Amino acid sequence: MREALLACLLTVGVASGQAPAKAPTFEVASVRAVPPGKEGMTDTVSYEGGSFVVKNATLEFMINIAYEVPPWNILGKPDWLAVRQYDVSARPEGETGMTYETMRPMLQQLLQQRFHLAVHRETQKRAGYALVVAKGGVRLKAGKEGGKQNYIMANGIRGGGVSLSVLATMLAIPLGKPVMDRTETKGIYEVDLHFAPENSPDSTLPSLFTALEEQAGLKLEPQKVPVGMLVIDHAESEPTEN
Q1: Above 80 in pLDDT, residue 34?
Q2: Which helix (DSSP H) or strand (DSSP E) does residue 52 occupy?
Q3: Domain limits of the chain?
Q4: What contacts 137, CB < 8 A, 6 or more positions away?
Q5: Within 13 A of 171's CA, how many CA atoms are on the CB side?
Q6: What contacts 105, CB < 8 A, 6 or more positions away?
Q7: Is 192 helix (H, G, I), strand (E, B) or coil?
């Protein structure tokens, strides 16, 4: 569930373009560490109701959202980053609501202020996959931009308005490796892939690789691809007082 939520947030970010140059800040914010023994599953992130709210979230998870980077693209992580949990509730200045794009820079600022988070970005070549068109061409129906919401499940990927670059981003979640779109194909498509969950030898569904070729007319070719990495220079496990 955690990975699926992250994937949906990441694909929204890819589809929506760049964040605005200037964004409002959180006017009021509460960041509390979850007491040891009280940890639980991360609750769904909410940001469209006028406040950013998340419960039982690790700092790693909040970095994933704020910087649009999956866990495996973060370097220099202290051991506690994916263990310690926090409850966060923050409200922006004024009465305006939030979108995913306006929320991200505000969350970055909050993490910098309360956890003294310092990061920088660098590009590295990592073992991953290139998404290419299979023999016979793409077998996906044309979709509509801003169509149905995108989902990543244990046994499939579904989207109603997905570019192949966004699909590559979604495929990286079940694969656990970066995927680069090398199809040179434009357009928006409907995607409904069904494949065997990882470590399910008794499943009657095809592997992700077979499903992608048979159901979408696409292939994954192993190769080293450039990956944007986020490097943590400093982070503190105890947030500053509210």
Answers
A1: yes
A2: strand 52-58
A3: 2-121+229-234, 124-227
A4: 217
A5: 31
A6: 19, 23
A7: strand
pLDDT in tens, 74-110: 999 999 999 999 999 998 877 667 777 888 899 999 9
> What pLDDT was estimated at residue 8?
46
Alpha-carbon distance 25 to 93, whole Å? 6
Residue 137, pLDDT > 70, answer yes
Residue 145, number of CB atoms within 10 A of its CB: 11
Is residue 179 a contact partner of residue 172, using CB atoms and an 8 Å limit? yes
Q: What is the mean pLDDT of residues 8-33?
A: 61
User: pTM for this one?
Assistant: 0.69
Dump the DSSP string for 85-135.
Answer: EEEEEEEESSS----HHHHHHHHHHHHHHHH--EEEEEEEEEEEEEEEEPT
Give helix then strand counts, H and E, for the chain.
5, 10
- pLDDT, average across residues 21-50: 81
* Residue 120: burial class (beta carbons within 10 Å; 0-12, 13-18, 19+): exposed
